[in-house]
Amino acid sequence: MSKVLPVLGRILARGWPIIVLLLAWDLVAVVNGYTDLLLPRPLSVASYVSNNVAKFAEPTFITVALAVPGTILGLAVGCVLAILVWYSSILDGLITPTTSVLQAVPVVAMLPVIGRLVGYNEITVIVIVMLLSFFPAFVLVLARLRQANGSSEDVFRVFGASRWTTLARLLLPQAVPGLLAAIRMTAPFAIGAVILAQYLLSIGGLGQLITDSIVRSDTVTVWAIACITSIVSIIVFALTKRLEDRVAVRFK
Q: What pTM did the predictor assign?
């Protein structure tokens, strides 16, 4: 019992917003007398998911499988652009405004253009995720590159190190915390981006399942997908936060 209470205390301390949200959801459904066709209760959704695991397992896997390469590509592109902007003021004038414009364009507006270029398929979804996830890496890595310790750079110059050597040996290690923060910010968001793209393009995964469920007026499935998406995003955030806490301290 003495070991259980501290565990319950930690769960309540970290998970109380979710508990309050679930209670509020259940209260709204009960007080207003909503049926499962409009607003199913949380226990109804949980029971439905547990009885139909196979229905949700494959679409969830497909969605996550598309989010991973899109996020990795986005982070890589953001890092490369940050290095180019750091290296050249001319490239800074070209790249920075372009990235700001791309970040401001809604996903719905980008889909037709990207679809025409690469086809309405999984590649389009990956490109969408890449475009949505590169900006945090670009901003945070560039900020770390520009906040380098001046005295350390002076030491490298005294010993005749080139800019690329200084970048590789000094600046990139200092930029690792910025990259880790970008991973924490973009990885959970990528799940929702994939679902949105799949929903708009109807090409599989949880997004396609939402489309099919809406056509059949299957509200329970839609709410189940919303819960699954939230759970997956929370897990991804927790894992990336743990990674950031463990790795970033080595580069400070």
A: 0.84
Do residues 204 and 224 both lie within one domain? yes
Give me the number of domains the chain comprises. 2
Q: Give me the helix-helix angle, 205-215 and 219-248, nearest 10°.
A: 160
| Judgement on whether residues 6 and 97 belong to the same structural domain of the protein | no
- The DSSP result for 100-128, as a single string, is HHHHHS-HHHHHHHHHHHH-SSHHHHHHH
Say how many C-beta atoms besides its own lie within 10 A of residue 174's C-beta: 17
> Helices then strands (H, E): number in the chain?
11, 0
Residue 4, domain extent: 1-33
What percentage of the chain exceeds 90 in pLDDT?
A: 29
* Cβ-based burial of 217 (10 A; exposed 0-12, middle 13-18, buried ≥19): exposed
Beta carbons within 8 Å of 3's beta carbon, 6+ residues apart = none
Coil/strand/helix, residue 49: helix
Quick: pLDDT tens for 184-221: 999 888 998 899 888 888 888 899 999 999 888 888 99
Q: How many CB atoms lie within 10 A of CB 136?
A: 22
Burial of 106 (0-12, 13-18, 19+ CB in 10 A): exposed
Helix 122-146 and helix 89-104, axial crossing angle in degrees, nearest 10: 130
Q: 7 with 90, same domain?
A: no
